[in-house]
Amino acid sequence: MHREYDFNLLKVLLMIYQHRSLTAVAARLGKTESAVSKHLSKLREQLKDPLFVRTTDGFEPTHYLERIIPGIEKGLKSVEQALAHGEDFDENNHVQPIKIALYNVSLEQFGAPLYQAIRLAFPKAMIELITWRGTTYQDIIDGNIHIGVQLFNEECPKTIYQSNVLHVEIGAVVGRQSVIQTWEDVFKNPCVHFELRGWNDVHHRLIKSMAQNGLTLDYRVKLDNLTATYHLLKQNDYSAILSQNLAHSNEFRFISFPDYLQAYIPVVACMKQGNRQNPLHLRLNQIIKQVLNES
């Protein structure tokens, strides 16, 4: 018949077995001898055995106890090791794969420095950086991906925690040579529709805000590749609606929109709610935040 046994009582039993003295065990535990004796009585009742016989030389274990004590000792060590493993996190010796999903712009721009930073912290781990996909939220929930980097999403599943990494300003990126100089010029010249997973909601809000103010972008081409978009901007008087951090090169300029267009959005690290205090996820979140803010 199944019975539940108190972990602490079993620890006391092992100590009595090792010391053969209630007095010695009481001293080590900082308890009274009477309290230790009560623990022993509970164990005797639960296990249906005397467990010890008092002799002139101390407590002698019964045959039953001699048979079960090796298993108890092994079991207690296993539990203690498991608990210790849960407390300690050694990133230098972490060998399990690390998988992070990033929206395509982040992967193109930050992939290399992010890999270097993670590799420095986790020298023995296999690191996988992949493009954000339509199934990424579910992959995070299922534990197939540790963290995803994406723009803040109001409709993100409630089982996903979105940790702020940085706030980015959305505006128009143009080539350094472009005739486009002001935000008004952006609406007088052709624009690249840059397709980005996770960006559509932000893009639609911005377009709606523009329309409410009588502004319309003249889209001439749709691209989902940042490098191709950059080439087009350098060769033509086109603009692309992108975040300010993507105009980092001297070959481009960033043009801000008026504040009433609400052109700001957080970049977030997405993780399963249950992993918010996981040492691995906390460390990865720290690295991601550092790399994206410094790059």
The CATH superfamily title of the largest domain:
Periplasmic binding protein-like II
Query: Which architecture of the largest domain per CATH?
Result: 3-Layer(aba) Sandwich
Number of helices: 10
Return residue spans where pLDDT drops below 50 for at least 5 consecutive residues.
none
Main sheet characteristics: 9 strands, mixed
Strand content of the residues, in percent?
A: 15-25%
Rounded Rg: 31 Å
Question: What would you say this structure looks like, in words?
Answer:
- The protein has 295 residues and is of the alpha/beta class.
- It folds into three domains: 7-87, Winged helix-like DNA-binding domain superfamily/Winged helix DNA-binding domain (Arc Repressor Mutant, subunit A); 93-164 and 269-294, Periplasmic binding protein-like II (D-Maltodextrin-Binding Protein, domain 2, 3-Layer(aba) Sandwich), CATH 3.40.190; 167-265, D-Maltodextrin-Binding Protein, domain 2 (3-Layer(aba) Sandwich).
- Strands 3, 4, 5, 6, 7, 8, 9, 10 and 11 form a nine-stranded mixed sheet that branches. The chain has a two-stranded antiparallel ribbon with strand order 1-2.
- It has helices at 7-19, 22-29, 33-47, 63-87, 104-121, 136-141, 183-186, 200-212, 226-235, 279-294; strands at residues 52-55, 58-61, 98-102, 127-131, 147-151, 160-175, 190-194, 218-223, 239-243, 252-255, 264-272.
- Helix 1 (7-19) packs across helix 3.
- 43% of the residues lie in helices and 23% in strands.
Relevant terms:
alpha/beta; Arc Repressor Mutant, subunit A; D-Maltodextrin-Binding Protein, domain 2; 3 domains; nine-stranded mixed beta sheet; two-stranded antiparallel sheet; 10 helices; rod-shaped
